[in-house]
TrEMBL record, chains A, B:
<dbReference type="InterPro" id="IPR036390">
    <property type="entry name" value="WH_DNA-bd_sf"/>
</dbReference>
<dbReference type="InterPro" id="IPR000835">
    <property type="entry name" value="HTH_MarR-typ"/>
</dbReference>
<protein>
    <submittedName>
        <fullName>MarR family transcriptional regulator</fullName>
    </submittedName>
</protein>
<dbReference type="Pfam" id="PF01047">
    <property type="entry name" value="MarR"/>
</dbReference>
<dbReference type="GO" id="GO:0006950">
    <property type="term" value="P:response to stress"/>
</dbReference>
<dbReference type="InterPro" id="IPR036388">
    <property type="entry name" value="WH-like_DNA-bd_sf"/>
</dbReference>
<dbReference type="GO" id="GO:0003700">
    <property type="term" value="F:DNA-binding transcription factor activity"/>
</dbReference>
<dbReference type="InterPro" id="IPR039422">
    <property type="entry name" value="MarR/SlyA-like"/>
</dbReference>
<feature type="domain" description="HTH marR-type">
    <location>
        <begin position="1"/>
        <end position="149"/>
    </location>
</feature>
Length: 149, 149
DNA sequence: GCACATTAAATGTATGTACATATATTTGCA
DNA sequence: TGCAAATATATGTACATACATTTAATGTGC
């Protein structure tokens, strides 16, 4: 559906305004698709993203700072997302021996297994952008980079 | 900065994954820019968006249902965002005479004046996508429409 | 006219976001 | 050495999101 119809706005001031609204709307749309998938596994989107970062580090631990560094949303509160994952026994938290201010966070076997089950489903969806060709995906990425210049 | 450096991930599996991560990251980036602007006026981003819809309706009233229909994030709780705006006397709420289940929401003079002050500042920023040409903005919009196909 | 479904909005609860502040540990340097 | 600054994380608060439930008003079929 065209963005004009999605939000019932017949016209936009210019292409910039239209692109901005489309950007926000479409990103929300994609994230909602993803969330719906994770929900069946008892995970939220940020919890999934943290788990994925921890798997990338495995078997090395990660600190909260490392998680924030790699997260897409830098201002979110990694501490409390880890709280939830710890309660579900998908991660462990231990004081870092070499720096007792820091905390070593590790993904558990249960966490790895959960991610593995999700991988299969995600693969079939090509990350939610399955309607784009390879070239279009690259083009989109370039335009997005230019926005942040 | 390229997306690889923004989130310290040296490579991506394919262009689709890279575009998806870039989409989420860049939209967050743009929204944070906007939020920073609104903060100086005591508004949050969703509050601003609701106010703008109400101005579009003015002097006709809007119902909560109409707000949800036009909001970018369909699942957010318009009722409670209106609560905050009402507390700041930027909108009024009255029971709709023709359907007493519904509520007529109107922007106040103070709300209109606040938006007018924000307009001037937003204009100079070209909606946060000022680094794109007109053609690139149109191209971006087309790619985003295709994602939702 | 009345029971029952439908509709509009509000409310409850869990989670997340944004930002300020607190607590504990480590570092650096006078 | 001692003490202030820096660092790592946790906590507090306000607001928003996501989704289920509740309350009140309206519409519909019998």
């Amino acid at each position: 559906m065209k963005i004009e119809d999605e939000i019932k706005q017949p016209a936009f001031k210019d292409n910039h305004q239209k692109a901005l609204i489309n950007l926000v709307f479409t990103t929300g749309w994609v994230q909602q698709q993803q969330s719906a998938l994770f929900k069946g596994y008892g995970l939220t989107l940020p919890q999934f993203n943290i788990l994925r970062i921890l798997r990338g580090q495995h078997p090395k631990p990660a600190t909260v700072n490392l998680l924030i560094d790699r997260m897409l949303d830098k201002t979110s509160n990694a501490s409390r997302i880890v709280d939830k994952l710890e309660a579900k026994q998908l991660v462990t938290r231990t004081v870092c021996p070499s720096n007792r201010r820091a905390v070593d966070i590790r993904i558990t076997e249960a966490g790895l297994e959960l991610l593995q089950r999700l991988d299969a489903e995600l693969e079939t969806r090509r990350n939610g952008l399955q309607t784009l060709t390879d070239e279009e995906a690259a083009q989109l990425s370039n335009l997005l980079d230019k926005i942040r210049d």
